[in-house]
Structures are given as C-alpha cells and as structure tokens.
Amino acid sequence: MACSNIKTLSLINHKILSSHLTVDRKIGTASVVPVPVNIPQTLSKILPDSATLTLKNNPQTQSFSVINKPVERKEMDSVPGKFGRFGGKYVPETLITCLGKLEAEFNLVLHDSQFQEELRTALRDYVGRETPLYFAERLTNHYKNNNGEGPEIYLKREDLNHVGAHKINNAIAQAMIAKRMGRTSIVAATGAGQHGVATAAACAKLDLECTIYMGAADMEKQSSNVLLMKLLGAQVKTVEGSFKDASSEAIRGWVGDLENSYYLTGTVVGPHPCPSMVREFQSVIGKETRRQAMDKWGGKPDVLVACIGSGSNALGLFHEFINDQDVRLIGVEAAGFGLDSGKHAATIARGEVGVYHGAMSYLLQDEEGQILGPHSIGVGLEYPGVGPEVSYLKETGRAEFHSATDQEAVDAYRRLCKLEGIFPALEASHALAFLEKLCPTLANGTKVVVNISGRGDKDADRVFHYKHDLTPCEIVY
Predict the structure, then answer these.
(1) Which of 113, 211, 212, 292 is most buried per CB count within 10 Å?
(2) Domain total for the chain?
(3) Are 359 and 215 found together in one domain?
(4) How far is CA 396 from CA 29, 83, 233, 389, in A?
(5) Beta bridge partners of 186
(6) Domain containing 263: what range?
(7) What are 209-247's pLDDT values in tens digits?
(8) Which residue intervals define the domain Tryptophan synthase beta chain-like PALP in the entry (predicted)?
(9) Are residues 197 and 147 in the same domain?
C-alpha cells in the first residue's frame, strides 16, 4: 500500500494513535473498529451505509458498539473487493484515497504487457518458476490399502522457490509495483519469517529499503529466518506478541511515512485491494498445476489440499479451479492442542464473523469481540482470522475445511522426510497430516495435489525436539 499527500492518520486496527478510545463488542455482524476523538463524524465516514452507531456511555472504558444491519448478498456480489458479505474497506477516510490509488495501479499492471513480461521474467529467472508437480510414489504406496489400491498423491513443490516458499511470488510482484509508484521504503510483517525473507530478498533485488516487524517469540523460534532477513539488508524490528501484533505495528510504521513507504502484505487479509492482489499473484500456483496435470495424466486434479493460515497458499492453488465443481478444494487449519483446548488457530472451525485489520471475515474472538491469541506449532498459521475470500468459500460451501493438531503435523513432517526425502514446512505439514483421514475415503487412482507451501529447514530443530507427551504449558521447542 502507498499513498501521498496524507499528513495524519488517527486510527488503525482497533487501537488509536492519538486517543485511548476503542470500539467495543460487535452485535450481530458488528465489528471491532478503531475510533478517533471525533467519533460520530469519523464513524459515518468509515462504516458502510448499512451500519448504525450505538454509543455506550461508559466513562471507565469509553467504549462504543457498532451495529451493522444485514445486507442482501445480491447488493454486494458485484462490488470490487467484496466476497458475499466479506471483505471491504473498514478504514478511515484518509486511507480510502490511498487504497484507491493502489487499486488503480493494480488494475493497470494486470493489463500492462511490459509489467507482466518483467514479472514473468522475474518469476522464471529469479524465483525459479515453474515449480514441479511431483509424484510422491512412496507416500502414495504408504496410503494403499490391502488390495494395493489408493489415491495418487502429487506435491506442488513451492518449497523449491527461491528463499524457500510461495511467499516470493507475491513479494516480488508487489515490490515491483511499489517501485513503479515511486516508493523507496517497504514495510512488512512476518510470522514464520518466510514472507519476511521473501520481502527482504525482493527489496535487495530492486534496491528498496526494507523494514520487517516480527513477534519476539516468533523471532526465537525462527532465528534462521531472522538471520537471513538481516543478511539481505532488512531492518528487523521486534514486537511483543505474535504475527497479529507484528502486523499492527507494521501498519503503524507505514502510516508514519505514507508518502515514501509501501506496506507489502503477504496474506489475503486486510482492506481491498490487498486480499485480491495477494491472491492474484499467488494464482500462478494453480495455473501451473492445471497445465502440469494435463501434461502428466491428461486431466484435472480430483482433490486439492492446502494448509490454511490466512489463506494465501490455499487460494493460490484453489483459485484456478473455483469454477471446476468436480474438483474438491480442502483447506486444513491448525488445531494446535485440540479444537476444545483453547490453544489452536482454527478460525473456520471456531471463529465468528467480525472486522479486523480493515476487512470483514471469520475471526477468533471472545464473547466481547476481543481478538483471541491463536496457537500453532506452524508459526505461519498463527493468525486470528482468514481472508474474506476464504470466508466466502466456507459460507458458500465451495471449499471444505478440516484441521490437524500439532502432533499430527509433526508426524506428517517426519513421514515425508522418511518416505520422500523432502523437508516440508510445519505449516504445509498440516495439509499432509490430513491425508491420514482423507486417503482411506478416496477411490483408487484419485489424483490428489497437496501444496507444499514452504521448505521445512527452519522447523527441523523444533520437530526433532518436539515432546508429544507434555502438557501445553510444558511443551519445549
């Protein structure tokens, strides 16, 4: 994101730069939205026309409730950035202009032959695309029944991309847009570090300044990626908390210099056009998969499986096949210590609809509308929400969603190492883990594609020392 001629910004997310006022619990489809001092005037600008405002006269918390009345879906389907009732731009008016400029630039590059050719060249010569669609023969044999029958399992090897994950597909494209818009400084947030490394690499290539925000605990768990970011020339800033907190701090850092900086998001969340941009630049995964499947067996995959954090790698694989109703789309969330443990990141399974970081989607939140801290051994899955398009796929039933625990993900990581000699990221291991339940239900010869969204070198030490017989408070990584 980038914008010029904006001098002040009074609110972001659900905290305020110049005031202690906050918005309280949503009612119905109401949402957690930050508010500045001039509450009525500002809310009338940042809320949709369907919203009404109810003030709660609580001098201790100084809180407000924002209540949205229902909106007919037919009114929203044709609106850019809306997926049914999900998505939108829940931001202050000052950012509307900024996001509008970004959207206009995004629409231009989609049809700019020179930009597209430069991007294709970068993806081929720098990123290393296309990535293989690999037949996992031993993993396939592992899931055959006593009659020697079972599905055929293929792995989309995004782990073989430059810097080891799918994140570089989007990072290089958005960095090119930032430079095209005249921005000199890139701001980003990262959890597992894969987006941070990808952004730092893209900035090094394009001669852009780079600042990465990362949670303190995540930095400790992913120390190798922190080192890589620094070697690539990025400034890495520590944030108390996790990825959601790093994201909030990155946005604050960005709004401090809107004229020169660009917020490079790696997830399919946030206000429009951010989710659509990330999905568009990741859709190369699914486009390649379709072409490769046709070359290998002369048809489409029957089942696509991907892990779900916020949804970037899943939508990257799924989007090409959304209209192919005969292709099953399966997203696998992080169940952590179990869906009933309170220590998970399963937003689809346990979340409710609300607004966070500028868009409406499913979120992990308590009865008062406060965001809950997610947990997963796969740090990249520790986000308390999913993207608006993922939310729409859930609500319409086009995709199905399941979950895998920490233990199941660790087991899947080890299984792929021993059977195929491949180190999958712990995030992708959640998708692999679901094969244990999925494969026995599939007909012989069913073509299954699992997105290996990242490389697992970063997780090897945590997997090696993982102790499954400890309680959640005693787990040592």
Answers:
(1) 212
(2) 3
(3) no
(4) 18, 10, 44, 10
(5) 210, 262
(6) 100-125+166-278
(7) 999 999 998 898 888 999 999 999 999 999 998 888 898
(8) 128-454
(9) no
